[in-house]
Amino acid sequence: MSTVLNPPGFQQEAMDAYFCEGEKRALALGNRGPIRFGPDGKLLPEIVEAYARTGFYIFEGVLDGGELAELREQFLAIFDRLPVHRDAKLDAQGRPALGRDRDTPFVHWSKPLGDPLGGTGVSNGRHPVKMDVPDAPKDKPAEVPFALMAPLEFSEAALRIYGHPGLLGVAATINGDDFVPFNEAFIIKKPGEGAAFAWHQDGTTHWESEDWTPLTHGFNFMAQMFDCTAANAIWYVPGTHAVGRIDIRAAVREAGSNRLPGAVPLICKAGDVAMSNRQILHGSFANNSPDWRVTFNLGFHRHGSILGAHTCGIDGQWVTYDEERIARRSEMIGYAIAARKQRFREEKPFVYRPHAEAGRSFEWDEAGRRAIRNYEKLDLFI
Fold it and tell me: Would the pLDDT of 64 be above 60?
C-alpha cells in the first residue's frame, strides 16, 4: 500500500488502519481473474456468481502494454489542454482550451482534496453525506478537474477499448445481447489533489419498480490507467447492490464516521478493468497519496431498463427513452467496433446483435468522426 502524504488536522492514523484492513478484505473476496468465456460464448458461471455475490469483479490484464500506453498518452494530452479553471478559455500554455466551445459540461471541477458532490442536490441528492477531507496544501490551485466527459470523441484509444470484444462479450452476458450504452468519462485522482466521491448508489429511477432486480441499473466498466491502491481507489460495501436503496445517512451515523465497516477498496493493476454494479454502495476518499489514479469509465444498461424510462437528461430536459433514442446512442458501439477493427486486424470483432439484425454496418472514417460529435447528448441516464 502506498504511503500517504500527511496533512495536518486529518485523522490519518485511523485512515491508514482502515486502508490496511480494507485491502486484506478485498483480496480475500475471490472476485478477480482474466475474462473467460465458455463454449456458449458467455462468461463462465463462476465469474457471474462472484459478480452476483459481491457486486463487482476485477478482470485482470485486459489491456496489454501497448494499448494501455496509448490510452494513457492520449489522456495526458487531453489533460494538458484543459482550461486552467472552469471559466477559462485558455489552457496552462495559453492555447485555446479543449472543450471550451461545448454546450454540455466537459470538465467537472472540485476544490483540491474536496468533496464536490457530498451533501448536494446533484443527481437527485444521491450523495447525502459529505466525506471528511484533509486540508489541501496552500500551493494547490483553487479548483482541479475530477471528471472529463465524452472521452470517446476525444480519444481514439478510448473508443477502441469501448469496442473491445471481451468487454462487449461481458456486457452481453450480464445485460443481454440487446444491451445498450449509458455514459463514459475519465475519472481523475491526481496525487495530493484528487477529490473524494461521497458514498452513494448510482441510479435515480426504478428503485420502487415491481420488476426491480440487482441488475436493474446496469454496470460500469472501469479501465485503470495506473495501479489502484487503498488510498486512491474507489471503495465498495460488497453485496449492497442486491438489497435496494440504502439509508446512507443512517449507515454513516451508525459507523460514527465515513469509514463504513466491511467496505473494501478496488485493488487493481494498470490494465485491469473492473466491472461495477451501479447499485452497489460505493465512494472514494480524497487522494492525498503520491499516486495517480485515472479511470476510464464506460457503462452499459439492460435494454428493458431503458426503454420507456422517463428521466432528466444531460441537458436538464425531461425525456422518455424510446427505441429511436436507444438506437442512436447505440451507434457508438458500431463506430467503436469499426475503429478497433482498423487497429487490431487479427482480432475477431464483436458482433452486436441489434446492429446485425438490422443489417447495419459502420465505418471509422471522417464521416464517422463527424457523426459522433456531441454524442454525449444522447446518454441514457436512469
Answer: yes
